[in-house]
Write a structure and sequence with these properties.
20-stranded parallel β-sheet, eleven-stranded parallel β-sheet, 3 helices, 4% helix, 37% strand, Pectin_lyas_fold
Amino acid sequence: MTIHVPADAPTISDAVALAKSGDLVLVAPGTYHEMVKIQTPRITLRGESRDKVVIDGQLQQPDGVVVTAPGAAVENLTVENNTQNGVLVTGSAKAAAGQTGPGGDYDTGSEPVTFLDSFLISYVTATRNGLYGIYAFSAQNGVIEHSYASGGADSGIYVGQCKPCHIVVQNNIAELNAVGYEGTNASSDMYVVGNRLVGNRVGLTTDSDHQEKLLPQQDTVVAGNLVAANQQPATPEQADGGWGIGIGIDGGSANQFLHNRITGNSDAGVVITATQDIPPNGNQILDDTFAGNGIDVGFTFPNATKGQGNCLRGEGLHTVPSGLGTSAACPIGPQTASPSGTWTAPKPPNGIPFTDVAAPPVQPQFPNAAGSPATVVPAAPVVPDTARVQVPTASLLAATALVQTS
């Protein structure tokens, strides 16, 4: 059954409350000041027009859409001006209730890890949200695709606390965020493929963090992404001050970074370092294309925690320490200590409030949004064949982005 908003129900929340598993909630153009909670399995929430169906939190509600039921799809709409998240998908009751820890993230304390199983976020625009634009936390078997995230005061797209994740993040644009994509304690069968991560303060991080469970972060494949020009000043300033970095591996291990185009990041293209007492081990940087970065690849361990088994395959790169393409060439023994060096990073400019980030351009529509039936979300996503992923062109998804590469 299709439930139309406002023809059959005056608000999106009313329509979702009426919907049964397998139903489609189809929303007509308009601005809706509400927080939508999807608590019934296998509901599809879809806007008739991606840029004209707007869930606007008016900076008075934490989230635009909260999904706590399996098999739900959120498609073809815009979520903006929420104090925490644009779209939150979670199996955590504390996260769904908006209970953040002292650092602003979801520190769920003694709550047992419970995963939401299967979700789809597709053709969603998330802009000017106070924490994350699109956030999958304690969730598995999902896809985030064809979406646009900007003005995330922490990250545009975030996947946290899942092992194994079975999550695919593909063909998205993240720009004008503090961090474009962040994967924290997100491990195993985790894929970040074919995204445009351009014009943030930091393009992508994969890291371990004691604030979340399921330490350490491991086994993510990052392939075929454009990671460029991540020193945009007109962005929110993250508390730890990251700036000018394409990819940061912070206490993450056994990740693969292959066939990415990593260009024009004023501090560094790729940085590998430790998180407190968690070392980064066995990360592989394989056949990426680098140009115009402050340095291309840096290994740095300023504290007692060191990494080992990290390796690089690529020639003619500017690395710190120098010569990593030889001294840490892939393949390498897992117990081989990673060398460490330092460099002078550019001073980051002050950020701007997330509410002041530039409005996004009009984004592509979900095909035949009004005429297509409810989406059947698969039990597990189709995993990309990363062996066939090529280095993207510098124009990847440029037509619908604000920040261009040179």
